[in-house]
Amino acid sequence: CMMIEHKAGNDMGSFDGKGVEIINTKAKYHVAVTATDAAYSQWQCRIMYYWYKKSKDMPGSAMGKFTRILHSGRGDQLMNEIPTFVVDPLPEG
Where, subcellularly, is it found (predicted)? Predict the structure, then answer.
C-alpha cells in the first residue's frame, strides 16, 4: 500500500477526505546511490547497504534492488560485496 499526500487544488485522483490518496501496489523501491572509490564514500555505501538489507529482510518490506553507481571508471573491492555498476567520471567543467 502506498500513500500519496496531495496539496490543495491538485486534481490527481480521489481522496480519503484528508488530502491523502491510497494506492494499492506491489511495486518495490530500487535504491540507487552514486559513489566514488574514496575511502569515505566506500564507508558510507557499506553502512547504507547494511541498513538497506536489514530493511529488505523485514516482513512486508517495499525494498527492491540496490545499485551502487561507481563513477570512478574502474571497479574496486566493494564490487564483490555491493551490487555495483561502473561508469566513467564526468569530464571536468
Answer: Membrane
In the block, cell 536489514 appears at: 54
- pLDDT band, residue 23 (cuts 50/70/90): low
- Residue 82's nearest CA partner among 55, 54, 45 is 45
**Amino acid (one-letter) located at 1:** C
Torsion of CA 37, 42, 44, 46, to 10 degrees: 140
Strands 29-35 and 20-23: unpaired
Domain ranges across the chain? 28-86
pTM: 0.70
CA distance 37 to 68: 11
